[in-house]
Amino acid sequence: MGLRLETENLKGFVEQKDIQALNEDVKRAHEQLEGGTGAGSDFTGWLHLPSLVKDGFLDELVALGKEVRSYSDCLISIGIGGSYLGIRSTLEFLRGEAKLPVYYAGHNMSVDYMQALMEEVRDKDVSVVVISKSGTTTEPALAFRIIKEFLKKKYTEQELQKRIICVTDAKKGALRKIADQCGYRTYVIPDDVGGRFSVLTPVGLVPLAIAGVDVKSLVKGARAAEKEYSIAGVSNNTAHAYAAARFQLFQKGKLIEVLSSFYDNMLSVNEWWKQLFGESEGKNGKGIFPASLILSTDLHSMGQLMQDGVRNIFETFVDIERSNHQIHIPKDPENIDGFNCVAGKDLDFVNKQAYKATAAAHYEGGVPNMTIVLDKPDAFHLGQLYYFFEKAVAVSGYLLSVNPFDQPGVESYKKKMFDLIGK
Ligand code: PA5
């Protein structure tokens, strides 16, 4: 079943006719995207990636996973940005599905973090996936240096060739050179897919398959979404309706989008989404600021601001229809806390009422909101969600008249840092 978009709580802020009014613009954006005539068309390889990934390649990755798990107690995934977030978001969303613990490195340069990581894995058998499209990003490059040095004390060169896998460009970059020189196994990131769109390339698929995630279902879900969102128009395509609604909200001064979920396994998916939307739209003085909340947790910290602060926010909930488990609330004969009213109900029933109450209260408080409804927290539906957001942000970028596929601003800090470190 596909994703659903509920928009009742936009009424009074953005009407259906406002969404419909963008239909022709959305269709034009869709045609530019599909026809490769829009800005950044060199980086639209993600568009048909799900249907282009070969089943044979997925079989190969499943076998790789089995092999690496047979001699590893854990995996360290080294990467940052698009070479990090999709892996973490998938593993955390599919809580409990991984068959191998995964640690992360290269997404920060905190020495205490690195020290703690090395202590954690010191007595374990470790394998490493190093991911960098450019092969030159400082944070993962330094993490790889340090971890390689650490592993050299544990393993022979030959053993390292088995345990280190590089995911990078086919020809360019320092990581490609190192891999070729040292004889490490490599997987290639396609040229036409940018970091934040790369979760379904070897960037995501290699470490996820090693961790034991069902990468076939992930890709299957994305394939279903590729088909579903190939039709243009706000009435036929939920990704297009979402892009149009948020564009109209932005035009009405709603400058911040808060992605909220009552399901805590969405935490890192929210982070992945922030990169996707922030890096795609935030340029030329434009862009909706992507923020996120996990509820009920954040209702008790950010709830006041959401209800009653500056009214420049709109909210997009991600609701998950069916949980993987049920926990019934016990009846308490004394009922001291007064909660026998929900005794016998599944905890998720109350969670859903909290969502409904919050959506209604925020709406009344001046925060228009919509809800993306996902059927189940499994790999198939996550694949759908990834593709849905990718399709939406591409159209959204074109509506804003920006190139959704570049990130020139990310270079600015790097140049200054290189000056400081003498690179
Ligand atoms: O979206 C992007 O392009 C960036 O966030 C990159 O993913 C990030 O900087 C990592 O780049 P690389 O994979 O080249 O090391």
Summarize the topology.
Elements: E1 4-6, H1 16-21, H2 23-35, H3 49-52, H4 55-70, E2 74-78, H5 85-93, E3 102-105, H6 111-121, E4 126-132, H7 138-152, H8 157-163, E5 164-168, H9 174-182, E6 185-188, H10 202-211, H11 215-228, H12 238-251, E7 256-261, H13 267-281, E8 289-294, H14 303-308, E9 313-320, H15 347-364, E10 369-374, H16 379-399, H17 410-421
Parallel strand pairs: 2-3, 2-4, 4-5, 5-6, 7-8, 7-9, 9-10
Antiparallel strand pairs: 1-10
The site of 5-phosphoarabinonic acid has 15 residues, from loops.
Describe this structure in words.
- By secondary structure, the protein is of the alpha/beta class.
- It folds into 2 domains: 4-38 and 229-399, Glucose-6-phosphate isomerase like protein, domain 1 (Rossmann fold, 3-Layer(aba) Sandwich), CATH 3.40.50.10490; 49-216, Rossmann fold (3-Layer(aba) Sandwich), CATH 3.40.50.
- Helices cover 47% and strands 13% of the residues.
- The chain is built from 17 helices and 10 strands.
- The strands form 2 sheets. It has a 5-stranded mixed β-sheet, with helices on both faces. It has a 5-stranded parallel β-sheet with strand order 3-2-4-5-6, with helices on both faces.
- Helix 13 packs parallel to helix 16.
- The longest helix has 21 residues, at 379-399.
- The protein is globular and about 65 Å long.
- The N and C termini lie far apart (51 Å).
- The model has no long low-confidence stretch (mean pLDDT 97).
- Bound molecules: 5-phosphoarabinonic acid (PA5).
- 5-phosphoarabinonic acid binds at residues 80-83, 132-134, 137, 140, 194-196, 279, 407, 410.
